Amino acid sequence: MAASSSSILLLLAATFTLSASAATFTIKNNCGFTVWPAATPVGGGTQLNPGGTWTINVPAGTSSGRVWGRTGCSFNGNSGSCQTGDCGGALACTLSGKPPMTLAEFTIGGSQDFYDISVIDGFNIGMAFSCSTGVGLVCRDSSCPDAYHQPNDMKTHACGGNSNYQVTFCP
């Protein structure tokens, strides 16, 4: 009985550790049209109808992560194409999309995460990006002041480690 109780406690501790080491991203489509959000290196992609949400968990230690909205897509099963943000014709992206695309970029660390919006690869859809303990960023057009416009811009923001994030299309 003692071995069984120890096993259960160990399993509960491992589950808590795993859940505590992930950041949750809730992606919402406020547009009047369907958006196909994509996320790398975790998440893949999906179809998101107006008003819909998609949730992904990103493990701590994830660097150079991206979320973007693809538009004008047509898929047959897991393959197809998008007018903006296409990632090699795949529904579930494993590589970054083709410009133009508005990007939510992030690095999920231990005690601190970093995030930003980038239009370096062009602008294709309005986006808001925030974390539960940081500044909310909004980019409604290609000249938005909250976004990186060139690589040497200083627009990265810090957030408490493993926070909850919100990405909203058409804020």
UniProtKB/TrEMBL annotation:
**Alphabetized UniProt keyword annotations:** Disulfide bond, Signal
InterPro entries listed in its UniProt record: Osmotin/thaumatin-like_sf, Thaumatin
Q: Which cysteines are joined by disulfide bonds?
A: C73-C82, C87-C93
Pfam families attached here? Thaumatin (PF00314)
Keyword Methyltransferase attributed: no
State the signal peptide span.
1-22
Question: What is the name listed in the Swiss-Prot or TrEMBL entry for this protein?
Answer: Thaumatin-like protein
Query: Which species is the source of this protein?
Result: Miscanthus lutarioriparius
